[in-house]
Design goal:
Oligomer: single chain
Shape: globular
Number of helices: 4
Strand content: 5-15%
Length: about 110
Amino acid sequence: MYRFDWESQAFNGLLKSCHALEIPFVWNTFSKHGVENFTGDSPGQQELSKKIHNAWIAFAQNGDPNINDLPNWPKYDLQNRTTLIFNSNCEVVHDPDREERIKWEVCQER
Protein backbone atom coordinates (compact mmCIF):
# COMPACT_ATOMS: atom_id res chain seq x y z
CA MET A 1 0.00 0.00 0.00
CA TYR A 2 1.23 3.47 -0.77
CA ARG A 3 -0.04 6.99 -0.59
CA PHE A 4 1.29 9.79 -2.77
CA ASP A 5 1.38 13.00 -0.72
CA TRP A 6 3.71 15.16 -2.83
CA GLU A 7 1.89 18.35 -3.81
CA SER A 8 2.00 19.83 -7.29
CA GLN A 9 3.02 23.47 -7.59
CA ALA A 10 0.94 23.87 -10.79
CA PHE A 11 -1.91 26.38 -10.65
CA ASN A 12 -0.31 28.04 -7.60
CA GLY A 13 -0.56 24.78 -5.66
CA LEU A 14 -4.31 24.45 -6.16
CA LEU A 15 -4.09 20.78 -7.25
CA LYS A 16 -2.21 19.74 -4.11
CA SER A 17 -1.76 15.93 -4.23
CA CYS A 18 -4.59 15.16 -6.60
CA HIS A 19 -5.73 11.87 -8.11
CA ALA A 20 -3.28 10.40 -10.66
CA LEU A 21 -0.54 12.94 -9.91
CA GLU A 22 1.88 10.06 -9.24
CA ILE A 23 1.64 8.73 -12.80
CA PRO A 24 4.32 11.03 -14.32
CA PHE A 25 6.51 10.06 -11.34
CA VAL A 26 5.96 6.32 -11.86
CA TRP A 27 6.79 6.49 -15.55
CA ASN A 28 9.34 9.35 -15.29
CA THR A 29 7.61 11.30 -18.05
CA PHE A 30 8.35 14.88 -17.01
CA SER A 31 9.78 15.61 -20.46
CA LYS A 32 6.47 14.81 -22.20
CA HIS A 33 4.53 17.75 -23.59
CA GLY A 34 2.02 19.15 -21.09
CA VAL A 35 3.15 17.17 -18.03
CA GLU A 36 4.62 20.26 -16.39
CA ASN A 37 1.15 21.85 -16.56
CA PHE A 38 0.00 19.11 -14.18
CA THR A 39 3.06 18.60 -11.98
CA GLY A 40 4.66 22.02 -12.00
CA ASP A 41 8.44 22.14 -11.78
CA SER A 42 9.64 21.73 -8.22
CA PRO A 43 13.05 20.93 -6.80
CA GLY A 44 13.25 17.32 -5.79
CA GLN A 45 10.50 15.98 -8.04
CA GLN A 46 13.01 14.19 -10.29
CA GLU A 47 14.61 12.52 -7.25
CA LEU A 48 11.20 11.39 -5.98
CA SER A 49 10.35 10.13 -9.46
CA LYS A 50 13.52 8.05 -9.50
CA LYS A 51 12.53 6.35 -6.24
CA ILE A 52 8.96 5.63 -7.32
CA HIS A 53 9.98 4.52 -10.82
CA ASN A 54 12.62 2.13 -9.45
CA ALA A 55 10.22 0.71 -6.84
CA TRP A 56 7.64 -0.04 -9.55
CA ILE A 57 10.30 -1.67 -11.73
CA ALA A 58 11.48 -3.82 -8.80
CA PHE A 59 7.90 -4.85 -8.08
CA ALA A 60 7.28 -5.75 -11.74
CA GLN A 61 10.51 -7.74 -11.92
CA ASN A 62 10.30 -9.72 -8.68
CA GLY A 63 7.09 -8.88 -6.80
CA ASP A 64 8.93 -6.83 -4.17
CA PRO A 65 9.05 -3.01 -4.42
CA ASN A 66 11.85 -2.60 -1.88
CA ILE A 67 14.85 -0.65 -3.16
CA ASN A 68 17.84 0.90 -1.40
CA ASP A 69 16.57 4.48 -1.80
CA LEU A 70 13.40 3.88 0.24
CA PRO A 71 12.67 2.68 3.77
CA ASN A 72 11.76 -0.99 4.12
CA TRP A 73 8.27 -1.34 2.63
CA PRO A 74 6.45 -4.30 4.22
CA LYS A 75 3.49 -6.04 2.65
CA TYR A 76 0.12 -4.62 3.62
CA ASP A 77 -2.00 -6.44 6.15
CA LEU A 78 -5.17 -5.45 8.01
CA GLN A 79 -3.49 -5.63 11.40
CA ASN A 80 -0.75 -3.05 10.73
CA ARG A 81 -2.07 -1.31 7.59
CA THR A 82 1.53 -0.40 6.74
CA THR A 83 1.68 2.29 4.06
CA LEU A 84 4.62 3.90 2.32
CA ILE A 85 4.06 7.64 2.06
CA PHE A 86 5.71 9.09 -1.03
CA ASN A 87 6.68 12.71 -0.50
CA SER A 88 9.83 14.81 -0.32
CA ASN A 89 10.70 12.60 2.64
CA CYS A 90 9.39 9.08 2.10
CA GLU A 91 8.34 7.19 5.21
CA VAL A 92 6.53 4.06 6.29
CA VAL A 93 3.48 4.70 8.46
CA HIS A 94 1.25 2.20 10.23
CA ASP A 95 -2.45 2.88 9.72
CA PRO A 96 -2.23 6.47 8.48
CA ASP A 97 -5.36 8.52 9.08
CA ARG A 98 -6.65 5.84 11.45
CA GLU A 99 -9.29 8.07 13.04
CA GLU A 100 -10.76 9.05 9.67
CA ARG A 101 -10.79 5.41 8.50
CA ILE A 102 -12.65 4.33 11.63
CA LYS A 103 -15.27 7.05 11.12
CA TRP A 104 -15.86 5.82 7.56
CA GLU A 105 -16.18 2.24 8.80
CA VAL A 106 -18.80 3.31 11.35
CA CYS A 107 -20.71 5.19 8.63
CA GLN A 108 -20.70 2.11 6.40
CA GLU A 109 -22.11 -0.06 9.20
CA ARG A 110 -25.18 2.15 9.50
